[in-house]
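note to self — DONT lose this again. spent like an hour looking for the file last time. sequence + predicted structure for the chain T wanted, 405 res
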Amino acid sequence: MNVLASSRIAVRALRVNKLRSTLTMLGIIIGVGAVIAMVAIGEGAKSTIRTQIASLGTNVLIILPGSNVQGGVRAGSGNVNTLVDSDSRAMTRELPSVAYASPVLRRQEQLVAGNLNWGTQAQGVAPEFQQIRDWVIESGRFLHEGDMDSAAKVAVIGQTVARQLFGNDDPIDSVIRIRNIPFRVVGVLAGKGQTGQGQDQDDTVMIPYTTMQKRLMRITYLQSIVVRAVSAEKVAEAQEQITLLLRQRHRITDGREDDFTVRNLSDIAEAAQSTARVMAILLGSVAGISLLVGGIGIMNIMLVSVTERTREIGIRMAVGARSKDIMLQFLVEAVVMAATGGIIGILLGIGTSALLKSWAQWPTLIDPAVVAVAFLFSGAVGVFFGFYPAKKAAGLDPIDALRYE
């Protein structure tokens, strides 16, 4: 007997007990569907993290003012004002591993344009900030060195600010007011989307950091400096060189703590992706248990089927069926059941992923390799858990089987 004939007999046997076959396949259906949906959620999370980190710029380091230590109590980074403009300039001038460096000042401001107003985050930055963040200009221009030198009252706005203050109108050369100071809009940034914390990156206005210092904040120090290394391989080297340079410039002697903090976004990205990876493995493992439970269900039903069809097996053996034909029939029946459940489970998993993406707004990503592995695994479950019942059926004595009631 060939596999095709065994498959026809298996399908016929499954049709006789439709409800039982369906309930048996349910474990495989849920298992495969859960594996695909859970892995899709995990892959979607990893993809989102990669996109969000990329939106912050590649090979990026952030330097923050250091912590203040009094009486053994550390107040945390940013509590003392230790960074100045010359620190930023020295990094690009003296460090070969640093491609760009930009001072950064931030504060919430209320913008006014005509009879409309909008609260947003104002950022004081240098021209290099555009290259560091890989931020494309949609229209107009970005800030340039002349704006820094003259502390010009010019602004580059994000998509959200442009939409809220100007609607569909072109904002270039329009005037916005920040604390009653008029700023001319010289550029509009392309959309960046949200960060991992849900913050809208397009809800921003960028002005020269010198203007921010002199006209809005009236300070001489910097809140932070962002740096882009020349390549991903040079990030660690850049971090080390920046630390040595700032310790020298700030006259920090050996044994004393740094009065600044250098943060590596690559480390943050790796930690976030590692967390997402662990989550995907856990979700996939939990879903994989359902497949094993489904396989046990198949073995249980196949053993019941062997018992119920003992007389049928005896008759087939009496008319010439060999042990391997009987074994093949029951093994194919188990595989057909598992494979059918696997196909339905794949459709269920893809449908569930699409539903989560559209309804719950969860990022999901279907990997064709995972779908293929889930289907092959469901077939392997059928072979593994169907082998013992098939072997038991093939080992029946024809005379005893014919006498079985």
